[in-house]
Amino acid sequence: MQGLARPNSDTASPGKSALGSGQGIVITPADVRKLFFKRKWIILAGILIGLGIAVYHVEKAVPEYEAVASVDLDLNRTSNIGISSLVNNSTTDDWNGSALNTQLRIMQSDSVAKEVIRNLHLYKEAPFSSVFKKAGYRGTITASQMEAMSSMLRAGTAVLLIPQTNLVEIHYKNPNPAVAQAVANGIVSAYQDFTLRTHYETMTGISSWLTRQMANLKDQVGQSQKQLAEYEKQHNLLSAGTDQGSLVDSDLATVNQQLAEARADRIVKQARYKMALTRNPDLLVSVAPGTVLGSLRDQESSLLVQKAQLQSKFGPNYPKLIEVNHQLATIRQDISREISNLTQRFKVEYEAAVQTENLLQQRLDSIKAAAYKQNESAAQAQILSHNAQAASALYDTLQLRLQEAGITAGLNSSSVEVVDKAILPELPVTPEKKKDILIGLLGGFVAGLIIALILETLDDTVRTSEEAEALSHLPALAVVPQFHGPSKPKSTSAAKRAGSGSSDRDDRAPEQQISRDLVTLLEPQSLAAESFRTLRSSVLLSSVDREPRVILVTSGLAAEGKSTCAANLAISFAHRPARVLLVDTDLRKGTVHLKFRISNRSGLSTYLTRESGDNSFSTPINNLPGLTVLPRGPVAPNPGEMLASGAMAEAIKKWRSEWDYIILDTSPLLAVADTLNLTQIVDGALLVIRSGVTRKKALQKTREMLRRVDARVLGTIVNGVDLRLENYYTYSRGYAYTYRSGYEPAYGSGYGVKDNNDEP
User: Fold this and answer.
1) Distance, CA of 682 to CA of 652 (rounded, Å)
2) pLDDT tens for each residue of 122-140
3) % helix / strand / coil in the chain, to the nearest 5?
4) Helix, strand or coil for residue 694?
5) For 139, phi and psi rounded to 5 degrees?
6) Higher pLDDT, 737 or 294
7) Which of 547, 529, 530, 586 is nearest to 563 (CA)?
8) Is the pLDDT of residue 753 over 50?
9) Same domain, 582 and 454
10) Is 687 within 8 Å of 471 (Cβ atoms)?
11) Which of 133, 333, 420, 608 has the fewest C-beta atoms under 10 angstroms from its C-beta?
12) Are residues 445 and 490 in the same domain?
């Protein structure tokens, strides 16, 4: 892996979105998997809560029984013998539409519900008896109590039309199965009574109305016949009904034919006159053949031929040619004169045709006026005749229907036929335990998922290497997983390998000799140790031409694990083998001495002030003689000035000749400005990001600070990562390394730990 020494000047600003400007948000299956891993407890809690609510509902719900009655509702069915056409024609044409829906609504109406309540005495049954809890039932029911019971009955009733049939099902639910059965059958009976009653009342009303209308209609028929006879006499329309027609009709046809012929003749002469106005002799010859103009055109053509021959042979001054030109001019004058004569003649003919057409049009208009007057009289006569005939026919029809109405009113006709009566239900229909529990599970899952999405939206910490690269625009040189140091210290044999390098520390107990954070030394086969070896390789490959030897390790804020990363990186370099110097440049709260359990009485602060010399350096691990550690020393009053001093620059210059690699553990960039003084004298910087701790804004601000000072940033170290959130870790074979069991969290510990007398 090759890191980036420094971002290009045109690199997008770190303040931009992690997804980049102009890029859309794409949710992949890997993102969904990450969400489930990160928020699994929230989702699980939502599922459990939903399940609990569903179980509570199932246990507390009162069982209800449902009775079903079915009827055949055919609005075309009738036992009437004629009078029904006056009533049902407006509804049976669309009985599957609005009329049928109207009947379904009637079944659920207040009228039917109240009738069922009265017939079955439901005010004594639950839940209807609840309306009398305050005063109790005393033999009378108020309007408000009846309305409340009607609402209860309608709430438990469902009327369903079976598609593609005339069958209607009436469903009713009640805690008492006997009441459910009785109400379902009672609704059918009440609806039948309602339809019979309304039918009888309708027929009786129609019969009474017909009786009143017959007297008026009889007088209307006689009056219409008298008006027709009087009108025919006044307008002399005795022969209006014959097929031969009148004289006006004959004149109208003749004049109309003559007008059409005159209009056609006028159009022809108008076209010939317009052609003459163009004074084109060729067109005039075509419309007036055999005239003088034709012979003149022939003479002109002959003279033009002679002119052309003489001019080409003898030239323009030839006497014969001059004579021909004179003749040609004379002929053209004659042609122009003849064209004028023809134009005048065509004009006279056109005007005569126009006058003839106008006269015929006037004659046609006068005949039309006479015809309109005649037709108006005939039309009025037809109207009077039609009124008389219609009144007579209506009188005869109503006379017959009136006789039928007396019979029809007494017939028991109904459009409802009971198919199945409701039977006593044996099993309750609610609650549906399996369905309710499934809905609770799904609802809890959806609620948990929504809450997880909300929390994910509100979470502004960096979680994966992909997010770190997108935000910082730097390569992630290594991904360090969450790891735990050994819960117990190394055994005696391991302690001997990792014992202190100072003679005065050999007598210490093994568990006091090294911090559990240094997994690269204590657990070299662990996945975390392999991550630091990957980091070492990435740093070495970050620059092919100039290998970085002085490496600065920093972070934005405290407790992000930079000291642990710096120590493990130094151990990894020492394993090459190589001569490595680990320097704690955090002169305020450095913790390197705590990790290696070495004395902090002298260190970088005393070394820069020349209070101590080479005795400040320590080799804490016996089997790693190439690793040398320089702790921070006592807290300095002016750490920023000391790190920016020439003594620090001279020290690093000297150390370059004594060690192969120099690792500088620095203070957080956003907390203090001490680290910025070192960025110009190192070969490269590593930015530590802790998963779930480092905030996106803090990372962007840190990256911007390094960019402003023109720091050579090799890349980032993303540590504390849950590898289940990394896409590459989800391959089918996984990764070969595993964690040890029985460990406790110790990652990133030590920063800010109280240092008593600066002793380990």
Assistant:
1) 9
2) 877 878 877 877 655 667 7
3) 55, 10, 35
4) coil
5) 95, -10
6) 294
7) 586
8) no
9) no
10) no
11) 133
12) no
Picking from 580, 485, 480, the residue whose alpha carbon sits closest to that of residue 535 is 480
The amino acid present at 246, given as its one-letter code, is S
Residue appearing with tokens 């004179």: 326
CA distances from 110 to 116, 127, 172, 200, 507 (A): 10, 18, 15, 21, 99
Q: Is it true that the peptide bond before 127 is cis, omega within 30 degrees of 0? A: yes
Burial track 594-618 (b if 16+ CB lie within 10 A, e otherwise): bbbbbbbebbbbbbbeeebeeebbb
Average pLDDT of the segment spanning 234-254: 60
Name the nearest CA neighbour of 721 among 374, 421, 425, 481.
Answer: 481
Per the structure, the complete domain to which residue 43 belongs is given by 38-60+431-458
Same domain, 653 and 506: yes
How many residues comprise the chain?
760
Q: What string of DSSP letters covers 444-459? A: HHHHHHHHHHHHHHH-
CATH number at residue 681: 3.40.50.300
pLDDT for residue 227 is more than 60: yes
Task: Match 């954070």 to its residue by tokens.
Answer: 517
Residue-wise pLDDT tens digits, 264-293: 888 887 887 887 788 777 777 776 776 777
Nearest one of 705, 697, 624 to 666, comparing CA atoms: 705
pLDDT value at residue 14: 39
Where b means 16+ CB within 10 Å and e means fewer, 449-478 reads beebeeeeeeeeebbbbbbbbbbbbbbbbb
How far apart, in whole angstroms, are the C-alpha atoms of residue 743 and residue 741? 6
Q: What span, in angstroms and rounded, lies between the C-alpha atoms of 433 and 427?
A: 13
Tens of pLDDT along 525-535?
Answer: 888 889 999 99
Residues 443 and 471 in one domain: no
Distance from C-alpha of 437 to C-alpha of 52, rounded to nearest angstrom:
9
What per-residue confidence (pLDDT) applies to 568? 94
Shared domain check, 682 and 556: yes
> 384-402 b/e with 16+ CB inside 10 Å = b?
bbebbeebbeeeeebeebb
Taking the CB of residue 112, how many other CB atoms lie within 10 A of it? 24
Segments of 280-375 assigned E as strands = none
Cis peptide bond N-terminal to 577, omega within 30 = yes
Question: What is the C-alpha separation between 744 and 23, in angstroms, rounded?
Answer: 42
Find residue 68's DSSP bridge partners: 171
What element of type H or E holds 51? Answer: helix 40-60
Q: How many CA atoms lie within 13 A of 254 on its CB side?
A: 7
Q: Strands of 399-468 (E only): list them.
A: 416-420
Together in a domain, 539 and 441: no
CB 690 within 8 A of CB 720: yes
